[in-house]
Amino acid sequence: MRLGKFGVATLASIAIAAGLVTAASAATPPAQQGPGNSVILKRILERGAINIGHRDASAPFSYINDKQQVEGYSIDLCLKVVDAVEQRLNKPDLKVTFTPINVTNRIPLVANGTVDLECGTTSNFLARQEQVEFSPIYYVTGTQLLVKTASATREIEDLKGKRVAALQGSSNEAVVRKLNDEKALGIELIYVKDLPEGGLLVENDRVDAFVADGVQIKVYAANKARPAGSLAVVGRLLTYDPYSAMMQRGDQDFALLVRAAFADAFRSGEAEKIYAKWFDPLGLKIDGELLAAFRVQALPR
Amino acid sequence: MRYLDWSVISHAWPFLWQGLQTSFLLLALAMAGGILLGTLIAVVRLSASRPLAAVAACYVNALRSIPLIMVIFWFYLLVPLFIGRPVGTFTSALIAFTLFESAYYSEIMRAGIQGISQGQMGAALATGMSRMQAYRYVVLPQALRRMTPVLLTQSVALFQDSSLVYVIGLHDFMTSVGIVANREARLIELYLFAAFVYFVICFSASRVVKRLQDRMTVA
Amino acid sequence: MQYRWNWNILFVEPYFGWLLAGVKWTLLVAGAAWIIALAIGCTIGVMRTLPSRMARAIGTAYVDLFRNVPLLLQLFLWYFVLPELLPASLGHWVKRDLAMPEYWFSVVGLGCFTAARIAEQVRAGIESVGHGQRMTAAASGLTTAQAYRYILLPLAARNVLPPFTSEALNIIKNSSLALTIGVLELTGQSRQIEANTFQGIEALTAATVLYAMLTLCVITGMRVVERQATIPGTLARG
Question: pTM, whole model, 2 decimals?
């Protein structure tokens, strides 16, 4: 785990310094107006709408609620970017359209310009940065194990020779395959396409554990376990998955606008409020690591 | 087995119903376009012009050789690159379905035309009709009539195939079911329900087809 | 366009090997399912044309059940729901001891689904031979079995060849749905490559071309059979 090595203490001290600088910075400079050289902003102006890519069922990050509206933590943060775009283009009535995306098509849809800003649960990896541009990091998680509460499993090593479910094509799956090679664990992987399928396989004793992003299985265990409390999330973080929003690559103007909008939200405490709105009801208080990440990325204007 | 909770379905029904309507709309439009285009291709394929027939054959074979999932995906992801602007999910699904299914409809029509004896064509030509007229007034009406049940059966399959638009996230019935199933973590209930709905619709449709077939059969 | 092409990715290890593994699993799923589909499909199709009421009812029920639910859902029901309905010991065996459960469930699911479609083609083929032939056979003293063996099936076989080509192609293409219950066949492997390299469009192109090659082989093979089996005097031209 990269962050662990880096040390939360180091992060926190940087954060304090960042906080001081924030306080010192004065009023924002006059922002540039109009689309300028930005292809994406020109496109948005032409359409009169900004197109946000969302996930169908990744609560509480990005999902369709039972009133058929798109909402969530990632979406609320992206709406801060929409505010900034409205200001920049001087179009307070800018329409927001939503396009559903999934793990398979999200990168091509951002690359081909269908989606202006992707707001889901996408991990910001360097290899992905060859195809798309990323916003600042707004959530930090890593691979953990979903098991039955009664199970004796505490770490991945306890699953030697057992069956483990994973989302196909996920970083979670990749790390299990890597550990299989390195430590000769002999884990048999069963692939699923959606988070609840993995949950179902654990509940029905088809597999001994389900590896996925810690936050997502925590939310699942807290809300969907039947009977309540029958599922638990265990284990150290096996990967480092920092979530960011994606946009088309090669548009520095738009990328800067997005970075500025996120930095503003981090600096003003708006991001923490949005976090509390979505995660407090689930009993997931903001942790020191994410708070430090917010402060570090709260670049002054 | 487990404690099933069916209340989630009545709660989500408005959303599912909207998805079902999208599925029906997609079916109706793709069926109309597909049969029209398919018949045209079948005629071209059996025409005297060899190059034209070869082109039609290539079209049919190419489309029949790739999974529908791929066709849908291609239209959604690649067409925007060529025309420089995004295509809506519904439009791109509709175009993909129409082109894809036209290949299948054309095979059915080709079989229908081939099943009509050569004598009929000869007789039509002998009465002074052009080849075009012979097709229009003699061959196609019979072929269409003979093949109506098969065409409709293919359309029932098309309705089921339309569930594949989940790859591009178009909110048809299947995608809507998937969204609710995942949101509520009620996979078994939702998928059993979806199977039931598809069964009722497709079963009734196939009964109607059968009745039509019986009525059409010349005594 | 802001997409960085990298076609080389398809020809370096391990990705090239993944594509080949994908082709292998596509053929293993489709091939095994095709055997099941032909066996069940021909039996059910013939049953639906037999004089026996009972045989017809069973055949009809089978076709109605399997043809009227999308394959995607059928696979899901086989994989997730069926093991829960089995008696505890058998259920446990299926859940925990059966090797590669996703493979066997997709083969059985795909086979049973395709069987219903094949049964329909077989029935239509036999019926299209015409009532007259059936009567003639009976009048000339053939038993039901003999009538099928010498008159109806040989004639029907020619009628069902074009639809069988379609079904053979369908089963290869439909095997791509096995991905949804976790079989890493061709489509699955192309997604796997995308997940590892983020070169999704290249991976998809490779899969599309490989599918086209697989199915063109089937089309060519079936076309040869079709041509040899043509009955002279109809508008058939191939």
Answer: 0.82
CB contact under 8 A, C192 and A197: no
Q: How does DSSP classify residue C78?
A: I
Same domain, A232 and A261: no
Q: What is the CATH number of the domain that holds C149?
A: 1.10.3720.10
Four-point Cα dihedral A195, B190, B18, B34, nearest 10: 90
User: Is C200 an 8 Å CB contact of chain A?
Assistant: yes
Residue C178 lies in a domain: yes
Question: Within this chain, do residues A189 and A269 fall inside the same structural domain, yes or no?
Answer: no
pLDDT of C134-193, one tens digit each? 888 888 888 888 888 888 888 888 888 878 887 888 899 999 999 888 899 998 898 888
- Note whether residue A31 is domain-resident: no
Cβ proximity of B3 and A226 under 8 Å: yes
Q: Which domain holds residue C158?
A: 7-237
Q: Give CA–CA dist C8/C2, Å, rounded.
A: 18
CATH architecture type of domain B25-175? Orthogonal Bundle (1.10)
Which residues of chain C neighbour A131 with C-beta distances below 8 Å?
2-4, 198
Nearest-neighbour CA in chain A from C172: distance (Å): 21
In this complex, do C2 and A111 lie within 8 Å of one another by their Cβ atoms? yes
CB contact under 8 A, B195 and C69: yes
Interface of C with A in 81-110 (CB under 8 A): 83-84, 95-96, 101-102
If asked whether residues A43 and A189 sit together in one domain, one would say no
Q: Report d(CA B183, CA B166) in Å as an integer.
A: 16
pLDDT in tens, B157-178: 889 988 888 778 888 999 899 8
A213: domain range?
Answer: 143-239
Whether residues C81 and B191 touch (CB distance < 8 A) is answered with yes
User: What does the block give as tokens for A254?
Assistant: 């738009």
Q: How many domains does chain A have?
A: 2
| Dihedral (CA of C31, C33, C36, C42) sign | negative
Q: How many domains does chain C have?
A: 1
Q: Report the sign of the C-alpha dihedral through residues A289, A294, A295, A297, in that order.
A: positive
Chains touching B, CB cut-off 8 Å, 3+ pairs = A, C
A174 in a structural domain: yes
Per CB-CB distance under 8 Å, the chain B contacts of C211 are 65-67, 70
Same domain, A132 and A152: no
Contact B85 A102 (CB under 8 A): no
Taking the C-alpha atoms of residue A164 and residue A173, their distance in angstroms, rounded to an integer, is 10
- In Å, how far are A293, B44, B65, C175, C225 from C30, measured between CA atoms? 50, 32, 14, 6, 20
